[in-house]
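Customer escalation, tier 2.

The customer says the design service returned an amino acid string that "doesn't look like it belongs to this structure." They asked us to rerun it and document both sides in this ticket. The original structure tokens are below, unchanged.
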């Protein structure tokens, strides 16, 4: 299999280049759908059935399964969107330097899209019927919290025994067995404008009200318990000499245990239930949308199977925890044995320095294909 994949490497890199050079940020529906069209054709050419789940605002999702599949045990999840704005691909297109490939979304996660596709090709090539034992979901909005695909993923995870999520492996090649949970809130404050020099007493500062809330929200952070609250974006006011009549903040919440989710929601709602500045109004939107992916007995059992595959390949598979969120949280919360970070190795995701370790592409495709084969025999 490795020899076959090595022979296909240039072909893989050509496909990767084609996809990296398409802007497919979560809010660029046309670009995400262009990626989807490329992958849809590739899978259909292999004989897979592809269902396109249309979306109005974001890109369309794809559900992929072989026509001979009957109640597949394994769910594979990979997202087609990136975090980058329109025009990024033109500014810094795909390129290779030494043994690394660069470009927007190259590791998170367009290389993983190549990996899933060629894992299926390898299984077919070597007459393993394991390609009939997988259901593949390619979604379009993971980078913004999977607002339209969360329900789809949960629906397709029903009855599945395993979930392999194709976020990139960590820089040292580790797969991911636990992730922190994640929430996102938007706080909007309405005040009353007034000239700050002539009649400031008539104003009601939305910024002042928001400041009180920011301090109380940050006080919820408890690093020892794995809880962090970060008000990462604020805006408000119209001029320096005007008492602000509007203010807004976006809040990122991270938790480490499922039991922390509800109390955290209640505390945030309580903080925003009343105002500190008389005459202002406050509106809270958001929720804890991803529960933590906790390492449990099911996850550990699946990890051991992947480790065994690695041993057969001469590869030591390690695992780690990470603070970032992913769609793995959805399947894990449903009790499906889930391993994340099954993609190729790379680093610096979401930045101009994002890269793929090209030698890892072949290795991780082989690991994925042989893992799928092993799971089909369980």
């Amino acid at each position: 299999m490795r020899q076959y994949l090595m022979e296909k490497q240039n072909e893989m890199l050509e496909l990767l280049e084609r996809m990296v050079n398409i802007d497919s940020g979560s809010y660029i529906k046309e670009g995400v759908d262009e990626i989807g069209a490329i992958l849809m054709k590739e899978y259909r050419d292999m004989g897979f059935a592809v269902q396109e789940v249309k979306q109005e605002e974001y890109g369309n999702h794809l559900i992929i399964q072989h026509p001979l599949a009957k109640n597949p045990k394994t769910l594979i999840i990979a997202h087609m969107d990136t975090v980058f704005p329109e025009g990024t691909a033109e500014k810094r297109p795909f390129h290779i330097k030494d043994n690394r490939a660069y470009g927007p979304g190259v590791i998170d996660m367009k290389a993983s899209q190549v990996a899933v596709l060629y894992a299926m090709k390898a299984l077919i090539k070597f007459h393993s019927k394991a390609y009939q034992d997988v259901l593949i979901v390619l979604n379009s909005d993971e980078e913004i919290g999977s607002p339209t695909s969360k329900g789809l993923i949960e629906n397709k995870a029903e009855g599945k025994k395993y979930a392999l999520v194709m976020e990139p492996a960590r820089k040292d090649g580790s797969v991911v067995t636990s992730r922190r949970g994640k929430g996102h809130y938007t706080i909007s404050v309405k005040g009353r404008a007034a000239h700050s020099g002539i009649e400031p007493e008539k104003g009601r500062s939305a910024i002042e009200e928001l400041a009180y809330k920011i301090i109380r929200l940050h006080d919820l952070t408890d690093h020892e318990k794995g809880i962090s609250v970060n008000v990462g974006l604020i805006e408000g006011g119209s001029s320096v000499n005007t008492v602000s009549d509007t203010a807004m903040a976006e809040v990122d919440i991270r938790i480490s245990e499922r039991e922390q989710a509800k109390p955290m929601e209640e505390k945030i709602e309580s903080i925003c239930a009343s105002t500190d500045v008389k005459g202002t109004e406050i509106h809270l939107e958001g929720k804890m949308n991803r529960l933590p992916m906790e390492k449990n007995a099911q996850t550990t059992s699946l990890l051991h199977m992947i480790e065994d595959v690695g041993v057969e390949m001469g590869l030591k598979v390690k695992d780690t925890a990470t603070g970032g969120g992913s769609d793995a949280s959805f399947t894990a919360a449903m009790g499906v044995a889930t391993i994340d970070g099954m993609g190729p190795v790379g680093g610096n995701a979401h930045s101009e320095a994002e890269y793929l370790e090209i030698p890892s592409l072949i290795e991780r495709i082989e690991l994925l294909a042989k893992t799928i084969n092993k799971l089909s025999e369980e």
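Tier 2 assessment: The sequence is consistent with the input. The first helix runs from residue 2 to 7. The domain at 2-180+292-376 is CATH 3.40.630.10 (Aminopeptidase). Sent an explanation to the customer and offered a walkthrough call.
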